[in-house]
Amino acid sequence: MSSVPLALPIADVRAFFPAFSEPSLDGWGFFENAGGSYTARHVLDRLYSFYTGTKVQPYSAYPASIDGGAAMDMAYTRLALALNVEPDAIHFGPSTSANSYVLANAFDQLFQPGDTIIVTDQDHEANSGAWRKLADMGITIREWQVDPVSGNLDPSRLDTLLDESVRLVAFPHCSNIVGEINPVAEICATLKAANIVSVVDGVSYAPHGLPDVKALGADIYLFSAYKTYGPHQGIMVVRPDLARQLPNQGHFFNADLIRKRLTPAGPDHAQIAACTGIADYLEALAALSPDANQPNPFRRAETLIHQQEQALLAPLMDYLGARRNLRVIGPLDGTKRAPTISIALDEPGLEAAKRLAKHKIMASGGHFYAWRLLKALGLNPEAGVLRLSFVHYTCPEEIERLIKALDAEI
């Protein structure tokens, strides 16, 4: 299994992450990346630089303040390049959950009673609960439901829910339980043709390669920096003309500043600046395996991450497919999913994770804020599932050790 062909040199990738040199983590396989990734050195360097050299109020008249503002501005510019959007589309908030609540409040002021919002039961509660609360304001909420066995979110089921009252559809790029990658571009194209706003939760997809949001066609795309090798910030991409159309959620005197319209409380300055390091890291990753046919480093990084993870995922999915006594949520075909695998057991998922820890496997169990999804799948959210999640810096030896631990304990 250690001979699995990889797209990236694993030792060079792991050298970008100080966690792999931390003695207390030595020998541990990290399989809880869906809860938050390790932080890239590029991010930590920028965070340290801001806190030590420019930890002042930014955008003032003196050098440290000017430099601090410039460091923050760079994050908007660099992330916009990585996501193929304009800098005015980038918004920072304390978390994706908080960003979703702000968005829902803004749309509530824009929509009228009788307008319809469609949500799914596949989502993390962050991209579901905030919209559902608008039912109290007279908004009609419809649920796009998953298949109760596979957890698949079928686009044809969405078609039956659409009518002239639908103003917005919120759905995930990838479920944090099911793992299946939804056809976002196809769905967004259908919604755009009907003049319906698309809100895509990319939190569980973005760690596996920041996407080309313009190509996806999403009006709003949400993800979390702490799951994409960065600090604890929520990042949302909002189509600029839509952001200007939404009622201002910030201070009234900032209504003309697009960055502040959807962020009622100023996010941490240092963490905004540090998010430039996410783009730095992706460029460094692309440079490990250059390709003249794909000169854009961010699209190259996305491709390399996908290829790397597919190579790592294949033996694990082969093993799980052969374990007929296990209910694996989502497709067993690794090409259709991200490397976030949930297993339904006859015991709480956390209990199984405790046994895996004896083999130095870091995993977890629970409902992972996808309470409605587990109910739809006929599972007890209180017991939850065992979730195993990894990213491109995982090595083949860790996959092999995980399989041995599953064989011994599950």
From TrEMBL:
Keyword Repeat: no
Keywords attached to this entry: Pyridoxal phosphate
Gene3D superfamilies cross-referenced by the UniProt entry: Aspartate Aminotransferase, domain 1, Type I PLP-dependent aspartate aminotransferase-like (Major domain)
Residues of the Aminotransferase class V domain: 30-402
Pfam families (UniProt xref): Aminotran_5
InterPro entries membership: Aminotrans_V_dom, PyrdxlP-dep_Trfase, PyrdxlP-dep_Trfase_major, PyrdxlP-dep_Trfase_small
Signal peptide: none
Entry keyword annotation includes Lipid biosynthesis: no
Protein name: Cysteine desulfurase
Organism of this sequence: Pelagibacterium lentulum
Lineage: Bacteria, Pseudomonadati, Pseudomonadota, Alphaproteobacteria, Hyphomicrobiales
